[in-house]
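note to self: dont lose this again. the chain is below, predicted strucutre after it. 213 aa total, dont forget to put it in the shared folder this time
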Amino acid sequence: MATYKDILDDVKLRYRHTFTDKQVFVWLNESIGEIYEVIELDSLPYLIQTIYHEHFYNLPDNMDVTRIKTVTCQKTNSDVYTEIPFVRVDDMQFTEVNSHWYSIVGQMFYINIPGEIIDNIPILIFCDSFLDSITEDNLNDKVNLPVRYHEILKLGILERIAEARKDVVMKNNYSIDKEEKLTDYAWQTKLAEPEWTQPIDNMPRVSSGRRCW
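---
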């Protein structure tokens, strides 16, 4: 699989320029961010293990809390996870102590669990994928995008280079090609999703027979 260095080497071959690597890294990261906003990749869930009587937990420094999608908590003495809702506590919103909920306070994760918090209850935080900035230090990492988006990434960088060079024709060519591919792939992803989910009825049935009292 291609590395970020492979991407930049190909960009330089397609459209030679004299911009510094530091500047190109800026355009590379902007292009990655642009793709992430469209395809909404999910990251691997972040795991928190509870500590006795502890409500506050640290989050990764690079986590964008606005990208949190779902938080689940394992039920006590069970293998079942339940989704827990988000509650704002900075505006004095009423909170229910006898239900599961979470909040974000600064860069800290706050969890409320009915009863008392015991050790090692797994909490999973699912986010839209986020990525550390690409620099010389991680240039040889594998590109954290599906392969079909590598070409879009290159076109995004090329578009920005052409714009900086005031090459209007090439800038427009790269932009049109990028948008067409991005729209096409985004639609393919949407079409691959089911139009609706089929609920499973787990409610107990009432017998149609006669009741005995």
